[in-house]
Design a protein that fits this description.
alpha+beta; elongated; about 120 residues; Rossmann fold; two-stranded parallel ribbon
Length: about 120
Amino acid sequence: MFENGSARMMIVLVGNKIDDEANRQVSWEEGQLFAKKNDLIFFETSAKTGENVDNIYLASAKAVFQNIMNNSYDLSDEQVGIKPGNAPAQFKKKANPFQKSSQALGTNNSYLNNGD
């Protein structure tokens, strides 16, 4: 991943089974140290109880949003992996004046029109 991925790729390391201390394979300290050494976000969770599962997604979304607000990503580059959708105008890819609109192509994809 590190060799082929983007330098700004975010990776979340997730330890599972915090509800089953007797069968723990890796301590919290080991997971945290590994994550810190490798610049990862670290969480421990329980799939059984759902503990901390939502927080993984919330933290990831917040980190991506913060990187967008800091202009860390070029959102006009599709290889970044983020598609702006209904993002504010400053984040949207500039329209190509030579590309035909969906109406000109005879399609009725109302979801393509976000009200701009």
